Amino acid sequence: MSTNPKSHPNELDGRTLLLRSRPEQDMILSVGLATLIGAVFCIVGLISLIWWIIDEWPDIFGILFFILLLMLPVAYTLYALDMLVWQVKGVETVSYDEKGMVIHLKKLFDRETTIPWNSIVEIEKYESPWWTFFNRSYLYNASLRIHYRLENGPPNTIKFGLRLNEKQEDIIIDRIYELRDKFSSKTDYNDGSIHIFTLENPRGLRATITNFGGRVVSLLVPDKDGQLRDVVLGFENVEDYLPENHRSDFGAAIGRYANRLNNGQITIDGKTYQLPQNDGKNCLHGGPDGWQYRIFNVEEVGDNRLVLSLVSENGDSGFPGNVCARVTYMLTDDNALDIQYEAVTDEPTVINMTNHSYFNLNGDASTDILNHLLTIDADRYTPIGETFIPTGELASVEGTPMDFRQPKPIGRDIAADFEQLRIGRGYDHNWVLNTKGDDFRPCARLESSVTGIALEVYTTEPGMQVYTGNFLDGTVTGKYGNVYQQRAAVCLETQKFPDSPNQKWPESDAFLRPGEVYRSRTKFHFL
Fold first, then answer.
1. CB neighbours (10 Å) of residue 154?
2. pLDDT higher than threshold 80 for residue 436
3. What is the band of 321 on the pLDDT scale with cuts at 50, 70, 90?
4. Whole-number percent of the chain with pLDDT over 90
5. Distances (CA, A) of 359 to 231, 237, 317, 465, 509
6. Which contiguous run of DSSP H or E holds residue 263?
7. Is residue 25 scored above 50 in pLDDT?
8. What pLDDT band is residue 260 in, cutting at 50, 70 and 90?
9. What is the rounded radius of gyration, in angstroms, for the C-alpha atoms of the chain?
């Protein structure tokens, strides 16, 4: 978001929207000007009165002229008093937080008032009456009126005098509207508030994220022509993400355990825990009440950064231990969505978090992703049985449709006569990444020839589940009125291997114990 020039005193800096400079001088100049003008008119009035008496002007003209001259100093005296009150109790700074605009009043009335974001109705430029031209010329050259209405209350208006030119005034107005939209979009649900936040970097990458499930709602990426394309599936309204409306994982931060756990069971230190079985006999993505359906706490909001947290109590969906998790979203200057996960526990447990965004780099979910070129730096993958649980084998991709070591259209082999593709109804498999946790090397690349948008994936995780929207069946209508058909998107879910706690692969340790910190990072870098 652009800011006012650094040389200007009213710059947008951090969380300060505007800052009045030299308020004491403003007050002296304001009152002094009005008093001086009033005194001048008083002198002129007295001289005119004497002249009228000496020269014996015609009564009608003399009376009118005398009244006019006396009215002017009275008016400007009242105006001086008004300006005194305006300056003494006037706004010194306007800052903001997640709750609203914080209006800081001057010292004589040392207090501050918060205008909630969702109460702001309209912001308009205010043209002062002609008789205040001295004030506008010498003190400020712009005024804003903010109309707001508190819940169940009457309409209110607050006015600001600013030292801004017209362009800078527009920047202030746009910024206030942007912040209002950023912080006030909320829905109450299960004794919590669902918010929507918009992050943006200087190069135009823009992500809209909700704290309901930590979901990436939209991701706008410049294409080869500079046009912004929304490259992820999702819904227009936050209410559509609620489980009573749609059971979906679109864009979600998955936890406590992403992917499948065989028979919905885990064993830790000889003790077996029964988990919900929401995928046949398996537990998928933490169960039917996984973190994708939870309201995360909002810890930090910035122009390009959002931090969400969640406390999952002991026994939550059958999982042991109180877990405190945090997800940080950041848009980097090199056009990447960088997602970092952290978690701690007070009892031995399992943890496996990922982001479940459905990508369509065509920017048009009415088209499929079969033309996307996919590259995966992996020599092996984990074959699955009929219930989608890994067989325990780490199989070579050599000579199979699972080989994406060179760029290949997703649709080239997806319908091949291959047992694994039959079981998954397409690709729904975990690849064993050659990067082995090195997040400075891309583990995968996805590219659309339609838009020229390319996506490189970097991760600290040992595996990546590739899912080609096999169970999208045209029964869900998402953003822009698009009906989501099979193959409308592809998911690139970086994570521990499926069923790792039961398979006990050394490359994929999904256990977390007290004193340890779970850390995971995935970066989606757009080119």
1. 6
2. yes
3. very high
4. 58
5. 6, 19, 29, 13, 28
6. none
7. no
8. very high
9. 32
Of the candidates 235, 269, 267, which has an alpha carbon nearest to the alpha carbon of residue 252? 235
Across the beta sheet with 444-447, what order do the strands follow?
297-301, 305-312, 323-331, 336-345, 518-526, 454-459, 444-447, 373-376, 408-409
Phi and psi at residue 12, to the nearest 5°: -85, 105
% helix / strand / coil in the chain, to the nearest 5?
Answer: 25, 35, 40
How far, in Å, are 28, 30, 33, 109, 219 from residue 85 at the CA level?
12, 11, 15, 11, 48
Q: What is the DSSP string of 389-455?
A: -B-S--EE-TTSTT--SS-EETTSSTTSS-HHHHHHTS-EEEEEETTTT-TTS-SEEEE-TTT--EE
Strand pairing class (228-230; 91-96): unpaired
* 493 catalytic per annotation: yes
Which residues are within 8 A (CB) of 64 and not within 5 positions of it... i.e. 6 or more apart?
A: none
User: Active-site residue 507, yes or no?
Assistant: no
CA distance 286 to 259: 8
Can you give the pLDDT at residue 123? Answer: 80
288-306 pLDDT, tens digit each = 999 999 999 999 988 899 9
User: Does the pLDDT at position 441 exceed 70?
Assistant: yes
Query: pLDDT tens-digit profile of 504-521?
Result: 899 999 999 999 999 999
In degrees to the nearest 10, what's the CA dihedral of 201, 206, 210, 214? -70
Tokens for 415?
């319908």
Instruction: Reply yes or no: is the peptide bond before residue 256 cis, omega within 30 of 0.
Output: yes
What burial letters (b/e) apply to 30-69, b meaning 16+ CB within 10 Å? bbebbbebbeebbeebeebeeebeeeeeeeeebeebbeeb
pLDDT of residue 4: 28
Selected catalytic residue, list 356, 429, 447, 461: 356
Summarize pLDDT for 107-160 with one digit per residue, the tens: 444 556 777 776 777 787 765 544 444 444 444 445 677 877 665 567 777 766
Report CA-CA distances (Å) from 301 to 4, 123, 185: 21, 23, 14
